[in-house]
Amino acid sequence: MAANAENAENAEIERAVSLIVGGDFTPASMSPEGYAEVAESAVAQADAYLDAFERLYLGARFDAELHSRIHATVLLQLLAAAAPERVRALAASLLKQYDAVLVIYDQFPDKAMLDDVLPPRTANYLIRLSERRRELERLAEGP
Predict the structure, then answer these.
(1) Rounded distance between C-alpha atoms, residue 91 and residue 108, angstroms
(2) Pick from 78, 43, 75, 44: nearest CA to 57
(3) In the 8-state DSSP scheme, what is residue 124?
(4) CA distances (Å), 69 to each of 2, 34, 49, 109, in order?
């Protein structure tokens, strides 16, 4: 019985993490009350939310194209005060993975030429992932 309750709680936290990183986690796109409820729950259970993020988006489940569409920094910034060391470590880990994926991108002196060399979908996801990397770099540096 306890395992079922824990699984249900994990599933709820995973849904909340997906909402937070999904790009529409704002008071305007939700409601101010709904936004506050999710944000307060995340901060109160920072480790559980970071565990869920790791389960869903890191390790064997890391998908660079997916990371170009999600906003991991929204979750990490939200939880930075509650779990600063862990957030910095996750940001550093993500940066290593992004750097590995962006090796080819980084070697292009003129990023506008990406569309000439790569399929547009690939070029676009590399550009978005590079933007996400810049956000993570600021977060990994800390205050």
Answers:
(1) 24
(2) 75
(3) H
(4) 35, 23, 19, 24
Question: Is the pLDDT confidence value at 58 over 70?
Answer: yes
Backbone angles phi, psi at 31, to 5 degrees: -140, 155
8 A C-beta contact, residue 38 and residue 103: no
Q: Report residue 68 CA to chain centroid gap.
A: 9
Q: How confident is the model at residue 109 (pLDDT cuts 50, 70, 90)?
A: confident
Angle at 56 between CA 84 and CA 63, to 5 degrees: 105
DSSP string, 75-119: HHHHHTTTSHHHHHHHHHHHHHHHHHHTHHHHH-S-GGGHHHHS-
pLDDT in tens, 38-52: 999 999 999 999 999
Burial (CB count within 10 angstroms: exposed 0-12, middle 13-18, buried 19+), residue 44: exposed
Length reported for the chain = 143
Contacts of 12 (CB under 8 A, 6+ apart): none
